Fold:
Amino acid sequence: MDKEEVIKILKEISVLLELKDENPFKIRAYQNSARSLEASDIDFGRDLKIDDLTKIKGIGQHIAESIKELVDTGSLKFYEDLKKTVPPGLVEMLAIPTMGPKKIKYLFDNLQVSNTGELEYACIENRLVDLPNFGKKTQENILKGIEVLKKYKGRYLFANIIEEAEVIHNKIQNFQYVNRSSLAGSVRRKKEIVKDIDIVASTDNPDKVMDFFTGLSEAEDIIARGDTKSSIRLKSGINVDIRSVDDFQYPYALHHFTGSKEHNTAMRTAAKKDSIKMNEYGLFKNGSLIKCSDEAGIFNFFSMDWIPPELRENYGEIEAAKNKTLPKLIEEKDIKGMFHIHTTHSDGNISIEQTCNYLQKMGLQYAGISEHSRTASYAGGLKNDDINRYLEEIDKLNQKCTSFKIFKGIESDILLDGNLDYSDYILSKFDFIIAAIHSGFNLSKEQMTDRIIKAIENKFTTMLAHPTGRLLLARDPYRVDIIRIINAAAENDVDIELNSSPFRLDLDWRMCKYAKEKGVKIFINPDAHSLKNLDDYKFGVNIARKGWLEKEDVPNTLSAKEIEIYLKNKKNKKTK
Structure:
């Protein structure tokens, strides 16, 4: 069991203990252990010893033994026994906004509410209105939260399923009776939200492939088992479909099942103009198959360049492929540094030095540290008196390590009136300013847009963070005219962030293309609060590719020296 799985189980144990109303000190011990383990750089890949774990501040002997048991055996008896004592519906209710363990425990004890359906019915009957610490408003919010869950049911964040998808595909790919295979569908197109996992495989022995697929250890249920298509449900809940074809059909099937539907419709329409029939079985002219050995051959037949899967959304890619004007899409290797990183100076759980060491090991050249500003007190936002200490630490680290550059930044809250947190004097101390909204989401579309534009017009603003405020599968974007925002950014030489957190991925890829056309530069930022979050930049690169972005559109593909000049020129130009 790897480190992330152990952390997840420790957190779940603390929640289960809360639902059972166990000793608060015991609950806190598991919470603290999970946080400490997350912040540590301990290696689970070697022979892990209990002494290694107890050296980590916050992990005691008992929990260290539990971690050791999890790592060595893949299970923990205490955890398995604990799960049996808590109805699974109580854990599911935690996904409802405003529903914490204490409220769930109270409703279970007093109303025998043990799942989301029972909770919804209790709300409809107004049974929560007169309960202590609930009331009419809380009941209304719970009902709204349940509606959100219903709205997003059966949909998954790309980041939450891609690792499992790759594990399943690797097993298929390496199966002796499979000739060629690939992930397909929305996973291959790297959509931010997916409904299932699709795999296409070519084989001369479809029965053996289907038997192997439906017998995978990751499968919890077999939904369907056919000669050329089978479906399973993984233990994680997501469905996986596989389609087997003869090898000569593979290119056509892969293209078709990669999609999107809109792209496929546009391709079929283009083919029809040339009297070509196009489907998952092939290209046909007067009933005869036009042979293509791979996907590139299909596009080549129509005098098109090969279209990367990320672009297959019918957003102009077919015309560009015909005109040989497809972009040379940005790649992970193009990223030279990262901005929008939080450390222990605000609400991150990593030090500045840990961050820089980790990024150096990744082969990067610089980091832009940006703590929360004072208005975000809930996130440890820096008060005026804290700022010099923060900046001095960065200066010392820059002197200590000359091969890596740290830029001084702040994520400055955009106040309700559109002004930035802090005075101009304090803002002038930083190398860059990220303007961001973290509160006041319920303004009208016009008010919110005007508020953000005023911040964009501030002479100290370098870039705008997570511009629509969305949380995927949890919170819709606030009401804002994103076209006006992008236009204002273009007019004021302000960059926009593509926030790479898999929960945000904001700016949306559909708007990235528009921003590019307007000449707005897009920073791909991890919004990191831990070492693990730093790797989230990869999800941002996926979305940047879907948004037609090239290396030249993203400032943090510049070298350390180049980005230093870029930031200085931007600051001098706007503040002189």
User: Anything to note?
Assistant: The first helix runs from residue 3 to 19. Residues 334 and 484 are 30 Å apart (CA to CA). The radius of gyration is 26 Å. The chain is about 45% helix and 15% strand.
